[in-house]
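Hello, quick one for you while I still have it in my head. My current little project is about how a certain protein chain folds up. You're getting the sequence in one-letter code plus the fold written as tokens. Would you mind checking whether the tokens look sensible for this chain? Here's the protein in full, and shout if anything looks odd to you:
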Amino acid sequence: MTIDAVRAMPVIVPLERPLTAASGRIDRAPLILIDLQTREGVTGRAYLFAYFPLMLKPLHELVSALSTLLIGDEVRPQAIDAKLHARFTLLGGTRGLAGIAIAGLEMAAWDALAVEAGMPLVQFLGGTPRPIRAYNSLGMIRASDVEAGVAETVRDGFSGLKIKIGWPSLTEDLTVVRAARRALPADCALMVDFNQSLDVVEAIRRGRALDTEGVHWIEEPVRCDDFVSAARVAEAVDTPIQIGENFAGVHDMQLALGASASDLVMPDVQQIGGVSGWLRAAALAQTMGTPLSSHIFMEVSSHLLAVTPTCDWLEYLDLAGRVLTEPLTVQQGQITASSKPGSGLTWDADAVTRYQAG
């Protein structure tokens, strides 16, 4: 197949449940919806998450500009990835928005290939759709609000719940964690996420305090690219340390694992390099014997985790459901990839118009 056109549509979608982290509040999801159209009439789809509305315009412009370089090229995801990355060599690589934009186009190309083959992406990659255990992902909540989050988690059958912490004091963190642990069933895992809010000394202090609180993992306690400090925390704290959503490609993950910066990894498909980057990350995790979970993007992550040898958890956080004709659903706390060709993304035209940005 040959790429004929690429359409990038910026939308800002209200979140059903706003997220608060130590660094701020997110109540809307700024997304770029990508349609990669081929001369053969097949369309591949993907979406990107810009995190904050002010990042939406530059990300949209990058996707649009890069897509012009692909018109007339064959739909070959790895060749697309290599061609576009080569454009940024003189800038020192593709960290940040450039890498994200390339990943979106690469994901859309993989989707087009699977659609053309008439297979779900997981099957096109050599696997089969299967239920993946998922955890419910919440933001920072006060102890008084824990019961509502736990009730939702139990109602939907999740076997895991993640809450964000990093309150001004350790006492506040422990109060929330203890309230959640008391309210959750004994067999439901409780994860906590500091979102990079601590320095290494405080991370060790709080991590050791959490060691006796029944926490399944501690996520991103220190700056995401400080693998030396993360390794110090992992060495000093008994609770498993989880990082990876900010790995800017597989090389970052290799450096992190080489430094023993974490016990677990959770790459983000738009940060790790799209489908191709994820497959390389999954192979690396298998080599190192490291459990691998996903970070957001559950529609495509459910396909990719199903072909990941060390598959662990899928993060349930619905960013795009309001602009999809068939959002993913939770069944007894598990997510199964769409059985439709490709990754199963189909835009709801009315919703796209309603939430269109700019």
Observations:
- The longest helix spans residues 97-117.
- The mean pLDDT is 96.
- The radius of gyration is 20 Å.
